[in-house]
TrEMBL record:
This is Uncharacterized protein. It comes from marine metagenome.
């Protein structure tokens, strides 16, 4: 079993004779007219064994070709998260990464000590409104309809940078635009995403609430206000090789501030950097 990007290759030996012997094979993916195709080549002889086959959409799809006594199955990834990792904290980059979610309840995360912050604490990723700590419960909260379409095969990264242009829109409570400590990036394609938030404790700020999370199983683990990632308006073309495209995010931020001013909100932020009055969402 191997992966190229997020395509999955599974090779199964058939009932007929395997004639590869000590020969080597290699598979690769190509894109033609918007379709994902794949090839298999015998690198010892240089012969093309299979050429320009369509990948299946899921790993369970039937109808895959056989050659040289082997059956080849190439599909897209399963509808699931691969991992939740902390790659850096206040002490710098973490290599290897630390766990970014719980390692129980069905999460695909390996135990690394359950401490992932420089000060000796642990922050875990979970779903707002989850009724228990299980992975399946989290998925039922954060993945609805066809939302896997927007997640797979990309990697996303929350970065707690505390920059002055970090904002979230309180779409479900006051409609304020508040300063937050983090950014969210599609690191695969290299662009920044806007954020919405549910201000759970309605204090016009993002942070820990005084309520306990069901995720840990204990009674002393509060959770933050909920975060809703949003795609920028230009998401279809967003991203660059440098991985630092903020164009769509900055356009969203400027439009949100302008919408707040147009609805009677302030033209300048308060002492905390937030725009607390008016419908600021765009």
């Amino acid at each position: 079993l191997d992966e190229v990007g997020h395509n999955i290759l599974s090779i199964t030996q058939g009932t007929d004779t395997d004639v590869l012997g000590n020969d080597s094979i290699v598979w690769d993916t190509v894109t033609s007219k918007g379709m994902n195709l794949w090839n298999v080549t015998n690198t010892t002889t240089g012969s093309a064994l299979l050429s320009n086959y369509l990948q299946g959409s899921k790993f369970t799809d039937p109808g895959f070709p056989a050659t040289e006594g082997l059956t080849f199955k190439v599909t897209g990834p399963p509808d699931a998260f691969k991992n939740f990792l902390v790659t850096a904290h206040g002490g710098g980059a973490q290599d290897p990464p630390l766990q970014g979610s719980q390692d129980w309840g069905g999460f695909p995360t390996a135990y690394t000590g359950r401490v992932n912050q420089a000060i000796g604490t642990g922050w875990f990723f979970h779903g707002g409104g989850s009724s228990s700590g299980s992975y399946d419960t989290m998925i039922s909260r954060i993945i609805r309809g066809s939302k896997w379409t927007y997640l797979i095969p990309y990697d996303f990264e929350y970065r707690f940078t505390y920059e002055d242009d970090n904002y979230a829109y309180l779409a479900y409570t006051s409609w304020s635009l508040i300063r937050v400590p983090m950014e969210l990036w599609n690191v695969t394609q290299g662009y920044r995403l806007p954020l919405w938030s549910y201000d759970y404790d309605e204090n016009e700020a993002w942070g820990l609430t005084p309520y306990d999370s069901p995720g840990s199983g204990g009674s002393n683990d509060p959770f933050t206000d909920w975060v809703y990632p949003r795609l920028p308006a230009n998401y279809a073309t967003a991203g660059n090789a440098a991985g630092d495209d903020e164009t769509g995010y900055q356009e969203w931020l400027a439009a949100s501030i302008a919408a707040g001013i147009a609805s009677g909100g302030p033209a300048t932020p308060d002492a905390n950097g937030s725009y607390l009055t008016g419908a600021t969402g765009a």
